[in-house]
Structures are given as structure tokens and as C-alpha cells.
Amino acid sequence: xxxxxxxxxxxxxxxxxxxxxxxxxxxxxxxxxxxxxxxxxxxxxxxxxxxxxxxxxxxxxxxxxxxxxxxxxxxxxxxxxxxxxxxxxxxxxxxxxxxxxxxxxxxxxx
Length: 110
What we know:
Elements: H1 2-11, E1 21-27, E2 51-56, H2 59-65
Antiparallel strand pairs: 1-2
């Protein structure tokens, strides 16, 4: 049901006001057979795990646009193998690279 989830994320799980959003990346793990150094224990071979990483200006911007709508008591949707797990990571230190941040949405994302 990966296609249903990807369609949902791309078109229905929208950020109404992106003024506090730096960037958001929906990602899935790379091939463990090809990259043998991958040792993430949370990968279950029965399904594809997706990880959504959002970078926000600050916690208040995230809370205003996303956090206030999160309801952990809501059951998983049909395409979800398990309830969503969440964490808010607070930067302690950072590096900025020479490559620019992407400037446009991926094709099909609203």
C-alpha cells in the first residue's frame, strides 16, 4: 500500500502555511544489501518504513502548523502497518554545507 501512502502524503497531508517550514523530506531506507554498513534495527522486512523529517524555523512554527493537529489516540490509517512514532529533535549544533537547499517541491507534491 506504499502508493496509497505516498499519494496521501503528497496531496492530502499538506502544510497550509509554509512560512516557518525550512524543508521537509519524506524518505525511505536505502538498500541494505547494497549498503552493507546500514544497521538500523528498526527496519522490518514485512513493510516499507518511511521517515518524514521536517526542518522548521522554530518549535512554535511547527506546533502552529502541524503539532496542534497530532492526535496519538487516532488509529492507524489503512495504509499504515503500525501507529506513527514521533519525536521532536532540537538542534544542539549544526553545519551548513556549500550545496544549496532544494528550491522547489518534488513533482506531484502539493
